[in-house]
């Protein structure tokens, strides 16, 4: 089997999950998030764009309900032994197949948790599921049960994250010689992604972000490429990826010269990250990280130019996003614990002056100060 962890690692994860299920008094849990299935069993597929679910019973037994196209995928990449196939057909209702499966498992009338907040659960799937299960048992939203268990990384997971961070650094090394007047965004993007793939890494869970000129103020991917001018700005957000584990980085790189405004925004970004490094440790919360970000940016008159979040947890993720549920935003009570992989980003976009500045990389938390996983310093890059 194509597994990235040994049997003891998966067994420990299942033990942690069933213990949480017992605390929540769940007789079964329906996993629809591909990240949850991958974490628990190694199951690796993009078949979650169709209806599929992994049924976890309180006794730790696992049953996957999926399509025929993923039968061999599950056998080859996971620890799952019991796989049930629902049949593609006109007017198919796989939620009915699920209900029948749960009935065969003697779960009628039981308390069943469901992962609703995931890309594997479309609105249509939710309606089909609720239509079949509302009268079947006590259905509860358990969207964040596994997600929260995945926040703290094991030693084996940290190894993949460190490798992902090294690949992210390699990607920046490959890009820098191409970032110059006359350089093309297509060549830069190809060099970065190619370096990660050539290094044994994976595709990221979402597209790399690249934009120059006015597009440097965008923090989402968009189609279209541009050639860099004599005086320009280029925003990049990318991630190294190893066994689906991500380590993200973000930089706005200047071509030709750094304007006074660029230097002002960079100084704010760098000062904020340095203060956040003092907060990014046990005893503080995700909300405390955001409050630090907001305070410093606001003191510098950048309230309308900053965002309402400044980072998030990272781990093994699948399309369409490498972001975890847990983000640095106002009021988030999530405690910072050792062995979390957390991406801290500063994004300041001055639309009036068409000036962009971003700065960020991934940290591993410890018992004390966080450890930056990038070998690149947080310096202002001017080419």
From TrEMBL:
Domain Creatinase N-terminal positions: 13-152
Signal sequence extent: none
PANTHER family: AMINOPEPTIDASE, XAA-PRO AMINOPEPTIDASE P-RELATED
TM ranges: none
Source organism of this protein record: Ciceribacter lividus
Coiled-coil regions listed in the entry: none
Pfam families, per database record: Creatinase_N (PF01321), Peptidase_M24 (PF00557)
InterPro entries to which the protein is assigned, alphabetical: Creatin/AminoP/Spt16_N (IPR029149), Creatinase/aminopeptidase-like (IPR036005), Creatinase_N (IPR000587), Pept_M24 (IPR000994), Peptidase_M24B (IPR050659)
Annotated ranges, domain Peptidase M24: 160-367
Protein name (Swiss-Prot/TrEMBL): Xaa-Pro dipeptidase
